[in-house]
Amino acid sequence: MEQDTDKKSLDFIRTIITEDITSNKNEGRVATRFPPEPNGYLHIGHAKSICLNFGVAEEFGGSCNLRFDDTNPTKEDTEFVESIMEDVKWLGFNWDGLYYASDYFQNLYEFAVQLIKNGKAYVDSLSSEEIRQYRGTLSEPGKESPFSNRSVEENLELFEKMKNGEFEEGAYVLRAKVDMASGNLNMRDPIMYRILKQHHHRTGDTWNIYPMYDFAHGQSDSIEKITHSLCTLEFEDHRPLYNWFVEQLGIYAPRQIEFARLNLTYTVLSKRKLMQLVRDNHVSGWDDPRMPTISGLRRRGYTAAAIRNFCEKIGVTKHDSVTEVALLEHSLRDDLNKTALRVMGVLNPLKIVITNYPEDSSEELDAINNPEDESAGKRKVPFSKELYIERDDFMEDPPKKFYRLSPGREVRFRYAYFITCNEVIKDEEGNVIELHCTYDPETKGGNSPDGRKVKATIHWVSAKHALKREVKLYDRLFTEPDPEHNKEGKDFIELLNPESLKVLDNCYLEPSLAEAKPGENYQFERIGYFTVDSMSYKNGEQVFNRTVTLRDAWAKVKGR
Length: 560
Ligand code: ATP
Ligand code: MG
Prior knowledge:
By secondary structure, the protein is of the alpha/beta class. It folds into three domains: 7-259, Rossmann fold; 271-341 and 469-557, CATH 2.40.240.10; 345-459, CATH 2.40.240.10. The chain is built from 13 helices and 25 strands. It has helices at residues 12-22, 44-59, 78-90, 105-117, 128-135, 152-163, 213-223, 239-249, 271-279, 294-300, 304-314, 325-339, 553-557, and strands at 31-34, 63-68, 98-100, 121-124, 173-176, 191-195, 209-211, 228-232, 255-259, 341-343, 345-346, 349-354, 362-368, 378-384, 386-390, 410-413, 418-426, 432-440, 457-458, 460-462, 467-474, 501-509, 522-524, 528-538, 541-549. Strand 8, helix 8 and strand 9 form a beta-alpha-beta unit. Residues 35-37, 45-46, 48-49, 69, 231-232, 261-262, 269-271 line the site of adenosine-5'-triphosphate (ATP).
């Protein structure tokens, strides 16, 4: 687990940027960009990149663009573009420029023509299989393509025809003429353009050729005058090519810096794998509350502040590691503890009848909204003769350390009274169905004037006032910490946790929750944090999602 404990010490990227500013490189200007490919929804790994790029721009008085890296028309869609914009905004960031790599298709085409004219690019007729064979391996140099010495005129003509759609897909590619013997495979005459007769979500059918990532990314950065192009470590081997293109073209040269991607336990962070979960209905959608997507986390009840704090805590480094999801949950609890309103809700109800409480009567008791935040104020909670408590808070035959309700025992009902259990009512099979209790009217508010003590305080709701709601409990999506690299070599799909979703349809919540809305966070006292699901309703009523438990129950189960 990576943790940047000393907040004042700059990470390696901020150190580089500080040095560049000091040496007046780029006239002291700082410009970054976040460049998602719109081929899926953003996940928590992207949040790390967003917080870094936008954070750096903010801290150094620079700018940060949002650029859609939409060079592959087969996988991209406007649905993804829209969700990405929504997620970046929700995380609390505003982009300076909004761009699409497809905005630059004409520029990129002209750059390609320039390289052809300079003898630095050629049209190849080898098939993709032949190109792979000619490329060689890490231990063997590659072989020149027999087509690498075409004349500039022939290359220009063929490239023009590729562009005009005169050839079938796969018939030709445009390659950069770099070095087939390079120790870096990316430098062995990489493909710049391929023929794709595909409809693009923005440029429609204008183009029959599309640039490869390596030919598009650096030039897009250059056009936008990005000073520091921050990307993940897998692009380290692409940096020489990134630099080669901008150098050959003689255009503004941004500096690419790589950092380690975020890996998180008990989930997968790859759009392709997340797409598979959605497509094969293992989850209800990209925004399923169990998904590590920003939209899933939001629907689950995560706050943007919690995600930003998490990203700050993990920091950025140059070596890969795996972060415990418990750290993300810790950031979440930290934030919710300060901000969530406290309420009472009973998930697994047991009925209580207060036998000495007047029939048809009720009263409103004062309850504190958030002990961590006085300004959150107070509310009224109704109390009456029939209540629900959590089944777990009663034991007929309690072991030594169980201080909650049991026959003959007196406990405090939060904000209400001291209550004693006198009689246990059972059905024919011997299941406890109801408790008959008495209350001490002198203990209103939860304290006894005679100084009598009780050992436990439990939550409750008034039966006739309560809202009956469905509540969804979520657990880890996978049973293994690293579902992609498990010991048995199983496919990650086999490691889905069959118990990741539990639906409770007989929950009773205090009436103040009638107005609760998605995006508002509540602490159900003693149980956990909850929010209203933004997508589902049961009988036209709210459904609640458990965002996170109060403590890490999983660690206990795992004996860690
Ligand atoms: P995926 O494999 O999930 O599709 P990607 O890297 O292909 O991820 P992009 O849309 O290309 O996704 O990523 C946009 C930016 O977010 C890139 O700069 C990428 O390096 C960064 N990014 C993606 N995943 C992570 C991660 N797990 N941690 C940190 N940054 C990430
Ligand atoms: Mg990608």
